[in-house]
Amino acid sequence: MTNTGLFVGLITLDLVYLTGTYPDKNQKVVATNYAVTAGGPATNAAVTFSYFNNQTTLLCGLGNNPITHLIKADLEKHNVTIQDLDKNRSEPPPVSSIITTQDTGDRAVISINATKSQISKELINPEIIHDIDIVLIDGHQIAASLEIAQLAKLKNIPIIIDGGSWKPGLEAILPFVDYAICSANFYPPNCESQKEVFAYLANQNIPHIAITQGEKPIKYLSQGKFGNVEVPKVNAVDTLGAGDIFHGAFCHYIFNREFTEALANAANIAAHSCQYFGTRHLFVVR
Predict the structure, then answer these.
(1) Could you say which of 107, 145, 152, 159 is the most buried, measured as most Cβ atoms within 10 Å of its Cβ?
(2) What per-residue confidence (pLDDT) applies to 284?
(3) Whole domain around residue 69: which residue ranges?
């Protein structure tokens, strides 16, 4: 069955390099491989959702700078429709530079994220959520995300938050959320432990909460019940975008799985993706 998803958030151009080691000060390192793709949490999640033959729309601010054609070409190849709310923007989109080390799969990321490319909620046509089955918000476009969350809630469309890190303004969006899938780096104000994070999110009346921890088990709180979901052990080549891929896969599986089963299936997809360099190889190798 084909479902329709709306993904709201950051869109970047990612320049990814695979190296044997991180460069020292004033050192030049020759990469053994590289990739140029669209990036950002909501963007990578949208590509993943589309991979499962779902209809996928990415709501973002992209513009018409000459380098945006690289982003558009990548997303077109993966059947992701771009709903650009900033078509006349001439400034370049955010560009991320990423170094991945061969031996560990760890990555270092430099990015400006969406701080200089916020889009106005006034540009959102309420019809955009017509026939949408699920919404994912990554927190990088707060005003637009709040507007979408309010519209989606009126139509009982499930809303997922990708809590990679805390972003000011999320407190207004959380009360609309059905599924909060957060990283171990997600700490709302005055929270210093995962126990406090669970309590904070539960106080927002979010029924299903999970905290991913890389290769460690996923912790969850679902309808008042705590538990863990094991994560597959793999030899990681590249962990870049694994969390984003997890979120996109979760959006697919939650339609016909229980919460914990959807978490487990999404973890399998994310772990599998870590065995390949870059964020796209998984989607051309089945």
Answers:
(1) 145
(2) 59
(3) 40-91+116-284
